[in-house]
Amino acid sequence: AATSTAPTPALRKLNPAPAQAYEIRLTLANVSDLASAADGKSAFTVVEGTVQFDASNAARCGKSNALSGQVPTMSSHESFRLSRISATEYVGIVYADMLLDEDYYGRGVCHWTLTEARVAMRAREDAADTRFVAELSAQKVFDGGTQARYFWKGYYPRFERGKHTDFGSDRLDRVSDDKRGEFFTVTMTARKTASDVPGR
């Protein structure tokens, strides 16, 4: 019987009571000349958050493939909600302990670690519109750090050659001063939420 009715175990289980909360704040700058066709209130109608977790010990706890000799990597991409505070500011919460460390493959407990928080934005719901993607590394999330990315406005709302994902640049030093207005800035900032700070 080639078809098995046994359910395949889920790659990860969500923690029912995560406690390690971090606020992710997204701030847009130099976007006043960008207005989405959808509501005119913001440059972006779609703002989606994703947090990536990797199993730090995937080689030991993951599903092994002895034939290929490849070391397995285990990643999980979990979405988080960003609420619009204003036309240029969004905020959401991510949890460092969102996933449960468990024995998923009978080879020992897998330890999940947060790798990065990402945000993808589109001018409208239309999938053909450019996806502008910015990210904040786990180190910066934990340290309450900030990361700015610069995106060329020429790809907004869409690239004439079709679907496009723009990861921007983390610096504008190669762009002459008179051209800097052609870029908008997306800044991601993290901070540990007060409810989880000891002594408060």
Characterise this structure:
Helices cover 5% and strands 37% of the residues. It is mostly beta strands and 200 residues long. Strands 4-5-1-10-8 form a 5-stranded antiparallel sheet. The radius of gyration is 20 Å and the shape is elongated. The model has no long low-confidence stretch (mean pLDDT 88).
Short synopsis of the structure:
The protein has 200 residues and is mainly β. It contains 2 helices and 10 strands; from the N terminus they run ββαβββββαβββ.
Can you count the helices? 2
Strands ordered across the widest β-sheet: 4-5-1-10-8
Oligomeric assembly: single chain
Uncertain segments are none
> What overall form do the CA principal axes indicate?
elongated
Q: Could you give the order of the helices and strands?
A: EEHEEEEEHEEE
Number of strands: 10
Radius of gyration: 20 Å
> How does the major sheet shape up?
5 strands, antiparallel
- Helix % is under 10%
Q: What tags apply to this protein structure?
A:
single chain; 200 residues; 2 helices; 5-stranded mixed sheet
